[in-house]
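Sequence in, structure out. Go.
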Amino acid sequence: MIEKFLIPQSIIILLISLVGSIFDCKYRKIPNWLNFGTVILALLYNLIHLNLNGIVFSLLGFIVGIAVLFIPYLMGGMGAGDVKLLGAIGSIVGFKKILWIFFYSGISGLFLGIIWIIFSPGHLKFLITTGKVLPPVDKKQKLPYGLAILFGVIAYIILGTDRFLFF
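Output:
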């Protein structure tokens, strides 16, 4: 299992998601230089090493990474930076692996959301009395989903893709 941490691709996506989650937790914003810089570097790397197939690989990963979070973004469940971060990671790992990272991020987000509600007394009281999750008034009251993406990347690196029978 420890060999998976030494794979350069795993180290890169771990660093990118770590930086993104730090910015998301601290500033509630993931910078475009991180997201688009990652996409440009992934495109260049894959163009050099895989020719036009590399461009298709990166673009499909980017598009799928954005597509899976686009509806939650439109519904106000997360910010555009979170969507772009998953797309940027997708440009590195490709469209099949980004689905796994999305899956692991969703599970991580569920657990983080439960913890966030339990430790936010106002949110927990509102949830118990109304049965609804408190709609956030500002960004500071929202769970930084970049953190869920980070935990999703960590779970992907540790668990990989061979733990389940789907995908």
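Check: The radius of gyration is 17 Å. Residues 135 and 141 are 9 Å apart (CA to CA).
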